[in-house]
Amino acid sequence: MDTQQVSAPSRAPSPVRGDATPSSGVMHINSRHTSHFTVVGNHLAQHRELSLLAIGLATHIQSLPAGTKVGIKPLTERFPDSEARIAAALRELEVHGYLRRTRERLPNGRVITRTCSYNQPGSTNAHPVPAPKRRPKPIHPAPAATPAAALAPVATPTPPAPEVPAPAPTAATPCVPAPTAPEPPRPPLPQPTEPLPQLLHAATALLIDLHRRTPHITLTERDIHHLAPAVTTWFERGTTPAAIRQALTDDLPQPLRFPAKLLRHRLIALLPPPTTPACRPTPLQNCDHCDRAFRSPAPGNCRDCGEAGGPPLME
């Protein structure tokens, strides 16, 4: 009988050494680390209540050298996650004892945040590792070469000084920041001296039209009613709609987070000076009798109707 020829193995060789090859699930291909590694406990890597972001953030912080900044801003620059997610992960680590942040005041008056990372939750104080005891050097007797060497006194070893344990550092007392002066009140929005309905309507239309020309500016109905009197003041001082639109939309910051606050600031800071009475034209009035337009400081009759029987008010 011929010998059976086997052309292929019954199964692919397993990359895991030994007979403990799992039938399903993860298989660990481990290599021994000799440098640049961090020991992380399974109580952190397999934590049941921490989020995946918090576990990864705790592992990253434990791998950093002492003195590295681990605030929200540096971590946001290092990772693509948002500030809100990183702040929430740091709070998770504080709740479960892997992180502690305290505010301290330096001798120069500056207030800083000191962060302590714990690789084992529950250890509130860090204990220094004691230095190994130094063994006394063995004293070898000198060879009896000369009588002088034989008569030399033998030095006796001095016992090592008893080690004094270093005092355990106490928890830092949280420093209460000094009270700051209250913020000055914000300047009020300019208000028109003569709130004419047609000017207020034109100001409202200009604010509504800003979103069509500049999509970054989105205003609510409340914002438009709040800012319309200030735009009316600009109209009252002789500013054209094109000039107002350019002053409000030129050189916008990117990204624009608070458009209403930016427009409020520009309407106050860039307000043009009021026009002098000599430069202001006499307003137009409608004749009470013939409804013809004429220039006069006060309403009344035009010159022709005044000559006919009413007092003329035309200049």
Question: Descriptors for this entry?
Answer:
single chain; 315 residues; mainly alpha; Arc Repressor Mutant, subunit A; two-stranded antiparallel ribbon; 10 helices; 6% strand; elongated; disordered C terminus
Task: Describe this structure in a few short sentences.
32% of the residues lie in helices and 6% in strands.
Mean pLDDT: 77
What's the end-to-end separation, in Å? 135 Å
- Fraction of residues in β-strands: 5-15%
According to CATH, what is the topology of the domain at 42-117? Arc Repressor Mutant, subunit A
Structure description:
Among the domains are: 76 residues, Arc Repressor Mutant, subunit A; 73 residues, no CATH class; 35 residues. Strands 1-2 form a two-stranded antiparallel sheet. A two-stranded antiparallel ribbon has the order 3-4. It is mainly α and 315 residues long. The chain is built from ten helices and four strands; from the N terminus they run ααααββαααααββα. It starts with 41 loop residues before the first helix and ends in a 7-residue tail after the last helix. 32% of the residues lie in helices and 6% in strands. A hairpin with a 6-residue loop joins strand 3 and strand 4.
